[in-house]
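To close the chapter, one final illustration. This time we ask the reader to focus less on the individual chains and more on the assembly as a whole: which components sit near each other, and how the overall shape emerges from the parts.
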Amino acid sequence: MLALLVGVAAVIARVRDLLAVAMLLGVYGLLSACLFVFMDAVDVAFTEASVGAGISTILMLTAVAITGRRESSSLYRSSIALVLVVLTGGLLIYGTLDMPYFGAIDAPANLHVSPRYLVDSLREIDVPNAVTAVLASYRGYDTFGEVVVIFTAGIGVLALLSITREPKDSDEEVDALNEAMHDKHLIVRVVSKMMIPFILLFALYVQFHGDFGPGGGFQAGVIFAAAIILYSLLFGLSTARRVINKPVVRVLSGVGVLLYGGVGVISLLRGENYLDYNALRENPIDGQHLGILLVEFGVGVTVASVMMIIFFNFAGRREHLLLNKDRRE
Amino acid sequence: MVLGLFNYWAVVVLMMIGFYIVITHGNLIKKMVGLTIFQTSVFIFYISIGKVDGGTAPILEEGIKLYSNPLPHVLILTAIVVGIATTALGLALIVRIREAYGSIEEEEIQHKDDLA
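The assembled structure is written out below.
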């Protein structure tokens, strides 16, 4: 599996056609997701499958569509770089010789903190999925920081790519475009139209079942956004704009972060530490459950809306550039 | 016994492929792809560290004694989503560079800057 992964990476380095590179990167993402399953990291595999093989491929493809798929053939000082890379790699491999073997139970990384999480989390938090317990409760601070980073990246993309004047498409134009696409992509459209409700439902399942099985706000948000993105890929950006209200999505991306932060403030007001969910209810376990539910929901909302913001701004930018080009010609 | 380190070596090779792409290719999108490969190699490294022989996924259940380490999973799970958000930001910058310079090749951009 790892050898396959290295092979794909090597091909990516050689291929000059950026379109092919973007597709290969999707393959790479899916392969690494499989690898994560083998190494027991089901939550991570879930995320990587939806992000690496789904959203990131689409983003790369959109970016390539805007900037052109050809790459110039000249390499920049490739011989010096090769020496440097081999040297660094050699040093790193020399470093691994001191590492404990793969799968060793007495590796230092497995001796601290994590036994406590595994042994005590059922008693303290009563959430079977240890990853969710650690993510939302023990390391709640950390996760809050990550959500803020995602939110900030969303703002950044918005600032860089948003278009002040959106094209106002008349209903007839949208309908005409819809018709044209209908003939071209009939089968894909019918099949995905049947699947999209289920994808959305699945996202909600992943969101609220994350306490018991693999899943949680991050995965659910990405899957939810993927359904919307699939819809707009197949039914056109203008149709999707009718369904998705952009200002609402923007507000929602902030609401998620505020919900997360708000839970922390409430526990502060109740006289405990920030993001200490024990304070939320009389019974600490109930408090933990409520806190994790709310926090994960906040994460899901922010991630889903930021992913949608990112996609719609990329696609909208492309449409805008194409329109301008048409007008000039 | 040598096989015990195979995962880490594969990670190093992946990382170096990513690094090589970043430093030799002038195309900005290709550079982002290289960074993504580099980043994924770090993810695989973390997850490899957390794997315990004979353990299962860390979803607690009666009758199972051995679990893999959940902590790296948490770190990497959030890192993946943050990674895609920052990649998107990078791609957005590339799109703007392309609009301003008409190219995403490093040398051409440098050339245009020198002329101006």
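Chain A has a mean pLDDT of 87. Residues 284-328 of chain A form the longest helix (45 residues). With these observations in hand, you are ready for the problems at the end of the chapter.
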